[in-house]
């Protein structure tokens, strides 16, 4: 069965696991465990200290994705299309094709609902696999992120957008920071899987930024659970290396030629 059918078949049967990777080494660890590996444009804030993902360029996404691809053997690999690379359907197709041909990823992700429907329909018509993204949309957001779907009108809009995306042919939708009841409702209404980040356990799957959950990126937000403190482990390894160098305990004969 193809990877995408397999993913969609997981709906209501098995939870979908998705994490971000920006490089080969991390991707090769994730590949043993994840259904989806996302090269997210979150790399702008996580790796480059950008205030917004709006500053991420197409080339940055392509170079990181080329590295990630070297670590991916079986997961579905999705690459975020950065801000301003899908302003109209022709630009979107050109850039999506460029991303796919240069990185050999399986699909691209675009943020937005109604406004990007024509773009998504055109990509799907041209055999590009697309994942949608609703709720908090970092590429359009100015200022602090606020949970979406608190008001009835916003709930109806996001639900309608989700239905539009499904009808346009996306194979799944990321729901970012929305109210639990809305995530539950959307997940029940759609035939395709929803992948939540800060969007409750009702979603068909979950995604987090790997650097956040392993404690490499220092972030404190409610929706991130820290599974490890990798910064502490790196720190302790570096301290031991430094001590060995100072005390001439490294390199030993066995490390030399
Ligand atoms: O850019 C990203 O990492 C994302 C996830 C947070 C879903 O879009």
Short description:
40% of the residues lie in helices and 14% in strands. The chain is an alpha/beta fold and 257 residues long. The structure holds 3-methyl-2-oxobutanoic acid (KIV).
Can you characterise this structure?
- With 257 residues, the chain is an alpha/beta fold.
- The chain is built from ten helices and eight strands.
- Helix 8 (180-189) links the parallel strand 6 (172-176) and strand 7 (194-197).
- It is globular.
- The mean pLDDT is 97.
- Bound molecules: 3-methyl-2-oxobutanoic acid.
- 3-methyl-2-oxobutanoic acid binds at residues 20, 38, 40-42, 80, 174, 197, 207, 209.
Set down the secondary structure blueprint.
Blueprint: H1 3-9, E1 16-20, H2 24-30, E2 36-39, H3 43-48, H4 58-69, E3 76-80, H5 89-103, E4 107-109, H6 117-125, E5 130-135, H7 152-168, E6 172-176, H8 180-189, E7 194-197, E8 205-208, H9 210-213, H10 230-246
Parallel strand pairs: 1-2, 1-8, 2-3, 3-4, 4-5, 5-6, 6-7, 7-8
Helix pairs in contact: 2-4, 4-5, 5-6, 7-8
Bound molecules: 3-methyl-2-oxobutanoic acid (KIV).
Shape field:
globular
Structural class by helix and strand composition: alpha/beta
Computed CA radius of gyration, to the nearest angstrom: 20 Å
Mean pLDDT rating: 97
- Which ligands are bound? 3-methyl-2-oxobutanoic acid
Lateral arrangement of strands in the main beta sheet: 1-2-3-4-5-6-7-8
Low-pLDDT regions:
none
Q: Level of helix content?
A: 40-55%
- Residues in β-strands, percent: 5-15%
| Oligomeric state of the chains present here | single chain
Largest sheet: 8 strands, parallel, barrel
Could you spell the SSE succession in H and E letters? HEHEHHEHEHEHEHEEHH
Beta strand count: 8
In DSSP terms (H or I, runs of 4 or more residues), the helix count works out at 10
The termini sit apart by 51 Å
């Amino acid at each position: 069965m193809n990877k995408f059918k397999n993913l969609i078949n997981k709906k209501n049967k098995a939870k979908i696991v998705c994490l971000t990777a920006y490089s080969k080494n991390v991707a090769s660890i994730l590949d043993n465990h994840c259904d989806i590996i996302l090269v997210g444009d979150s790399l702008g804030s996580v790796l480059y200290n950008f205030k917004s993902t709006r500053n991420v360029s197409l080339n940055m996404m392509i170079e990181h994705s080329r590295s990630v691809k070297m670590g991916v053997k079986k997961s579905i690999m999705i690459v975020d299309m950065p801000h301003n690379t899908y302003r109209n359907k022709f630009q979107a197709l050109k850039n999506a094709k460029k991303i796919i041909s240069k990185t050999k990823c399986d699909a691209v992700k675009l943020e937005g609902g109604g406004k990007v429907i024509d773009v998504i329909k055109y990509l799907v018509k041209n055999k590009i696999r697309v994942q949608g993204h609703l709720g908090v949309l970092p590429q359009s957001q100015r200022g602090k992120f606020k949970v979406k779907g608190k008001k009835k009108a916003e709930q109806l809009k996001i639900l309608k957008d989700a239905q539009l995306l499904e009808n346009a042919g996306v194979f799944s939708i990321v729901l970012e920071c929305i109210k639990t009841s809305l995530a539950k409702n959307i997940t029940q209404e759609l035939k395709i899987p929803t992948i939540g980040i800060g969007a409750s356990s009702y979603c068909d799957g979950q995604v987090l930024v790997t650097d956040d959950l392993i404690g490499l990126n220092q972030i404190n937000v409610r929706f991130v659970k820290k599974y490890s403190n990798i910064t502490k482990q790196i720190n302790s390894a570096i301290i031991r290396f430094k001590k060995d160098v100072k005390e001439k305990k490294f390199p030993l004969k066995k490390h030399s030629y």
